[in-house]
Specification:
Order of helices and strands: HHHHHHHHHHH
Number of strands: 0
Largest sheet: none
C-alpha cells in the first residue's frame, strides 16, 4: 500500500537523525581546537559586553575601540592574576632549600613509622619507591608529549580567544540581525527579549562565580593565617581559582597547602587542619 501521507518511515527518520548527530559530533571533535576557544569567547564576550557598552556610550569611544578596550581590560585582569601566582611561586622557590630539608626530615619520620608499624626495613621501602618511580619513568615520554600538546592548545586558545571576543563584540549588531532574519515568523521584540535574558543569565552566573571565588579566597586565607601557614594569600587565592575545575579543584587546592604545612611545620596536625578547613568552604558553591 502506498504511503499517502508522504511521510518517510520512522526507521529512516531515526537513522537520518542518528547519522546527522554522528556527523555533528565528528565535526566538533575535528574542529575542537577552534570550537572550544569560540565557546569560551562567546561566554566572555557576553560578560564583557557591559564594559564595551561603558566605553562606547559613556566615554563616546567608537565601537571598534570600545571592543578593543574591553578585551584589554580582560587581558589586564587575567595577566595580573597570572603575575601574582608566578611571583609568589618564585618567592616560595627561594625557600626551596629549607623546605627540602624539612621534607627529608618528614620522610625520615615516615620511614621510621613504616618500619615500626609494618616491620619493613628501609631498604625494602626504598626498593618499593624505586619500583614505582621506574614505572612512572617508563611513561614519561607519553606524559611529556601530552603536556606539550596541552601547552600547544593553551597557546592557541590564548591567541584565538581575544580575537574571537573582539569580533563578537564588534559585530554584535550583525549577530542580532542574523537571529531576526533566521526567525522571521517570530516578533523581533520577543527575540530581543530572549537574547537579553541570555545575556543577563550569563553575566549573573559569571558575576556570582567571581563573587564566590572571592569569598572563598578570603576565608581560605583567613584560615591559613590563623594556623600560621606562610604565603596564606597565595594558597588561599590559588585554591579559589582551582574551584573552576569541577570536583578535583577543591582537592588540589587543599593538598598543596597541606603538603607545604607538612614540610614547614613541626607537626602534621597543621596539614590535617588545612585539609579539614578547605573542603568546608565548598558549601559556598551550592
Amino acid at each position: 500500500m502506498e504511503n499517502k501521507t508522504g511521510k518517510r518511515p520512522y526507521s529512516i527518520e531515526l537513522a537520518s537523525s542518528l547519522f546527522a548527530l554522528a556527523l555533528i559530533i565528528g565535526f566538533l571533535y575535528v574542529t575542537q581546537s577552534v570550537v572550544v576557544p569560540l565557546l569560551f569567547a562567546i561566554i566572555l564576550s557576553m560578560t564583557l559586553y557591559p564594559v564595551a557598552a561603558f566605553f562606547e556610550n559613556k566615554l563616546r569611544f567608537g565601537k571598534a575601540l570600545a571592543s578593543i578596550m574591553a578585551v584589554i581590560v580582560a587581558i589586564l585582569v587575567i595577566s595580573t592574576l597570572l603575575w601574582f601566582i608566578i611571583h609568589q611561586s618564585i618567592i616560595i622557590g627561594k625557600d626551596a632549600v629549607a623546605i627540602q630539608e624539612k621534607v627529608l626530615v618528614a620522610l625520615e619520620s615516615i620511614q621510621n613509622w613504616v618500619q615500626s608499624q609494618f616491620g619493613l626495613e628501609r631498604s625494602e621501602v626504598i626498593e618499593k619507591v624505586q619500583e614505582q618511580g621506574n614505572r612512572v619513568l617508563e611513561n614519561v615520554g607519553g606524559y611529556i608529549s601530552a603536556a606539550f600538546g596541552s601547552i600547544g592548545s593553551m597557546l592557541a586558545g590564548v591567541v584565538l580567544v581575544p580575537i574571537f571576543i573582539f569580533f563578537l563584540l564588534y559585530y554584535r549588531d550583525f549577530f542580532k540581525e542574523f537571529f531576526f532574519k533566521s526567525f522571521k515568523n517570530t516578533d523581533n521584540k520577543k527575540i530581543h527579549g530572549v537574547l537579553s535574558k541570555i545575556y543577563q543569565v550569563v553575566q549573573s552566573y559569571c558575576l556570582g562565580l567571581v563573587t564566590v571565588m572571592g569569598i572563598v579566597a578570603v576565608l581560605n586565607t583567613a584560615g591559613l593565617m590563623l594556623m600560621g601557614i606562610q604565603y596564606a594569600w597565595f594558597f588561599g587565592s590559588l585554591a579559589s581559582l582551582l574551584m573552576l575545575l569541577p570536583y578535583i579543584g577543591i582537592a588540589i587546592g587543599s593538598i598543596l597547602p597541606a603538603l607545604f604545612a607538612l614540610a614547614t611545620k613541626d607537626t602534621g596536625f597543621y596539614a590535617v587542619g588545612v585539609i579539614a578547613w578547605f573542603p568546608s568552604r565548598s558549601i559556598f558553591r551550592r
